[in-house]
UniProtKB/TrEMBL annotation:
One of its GO terms (biological process) is methylation. This is Methylated-DNA--protein-cysteine methyltransferase. Residues 2-76 form the Methylguanine DNA methyltransferase ribonuclease-like domain. The active site is at C132 (nucleophile). Involved in the cellular defense against the biological effects of O6-methylguanine (O6-MeG) and O4-methylthymine (O4-MeT) in DNA. Repairs the methylated nucleobase in DNA by stoichiometrically transferring the methyl group to a cysteine residue in the enzyme. This is a suicide reaction: the enzyme is irreversibly inactivated.
Amino acid sequence: MIHYRTITGPLGDVLLRAEAGCLTGAFFAGQKYHPGVFADAAAPDTDAARLFDAATHELQEYFAGVRQRFTVPLAPVGSRFQQDVWRALLAIPFGETTTYGALAARLGLPGGHARAVGGAVGRNPISVIVPCHRVLGSQGALTGYAGGVPRKLALLRLEGIGIAMAGAHDTLPIAA
């Protein structure tokens, strides 16, 4: 059975999804590819409730600046290629970035596969915990993010990565 819980975070509500004892989704409200569930569909069983509590605690610690790695069990659902890309995202350390092209090269893909990698990154179903926000365009350009570029910028700044974005109104600060 699939369980859902919505939590409130400093960058807006996050819908958590769990199945079989693993987190399968973490979606910002309004995020591209959001599963469309807006409330708890059913009361979670004890295992799902514990998983949601742990994920919520770890996300709170991350946003407070005291957690750099997540330990909740993950099981994102996607194609084999997407799974490979999402595993590669987990290897990007806190406070560091890479580019889509470099990620493609790390996966052993021939030149020109940055766009395919970008498509898989964009469909990452576990925002923040699987750190797709750490992937930038060529030459470090701040590019799209399923949760919105202002959120991506806020996450990068939280990790101490200084990136400029045009227009002061484009920022989404993390609440204290």
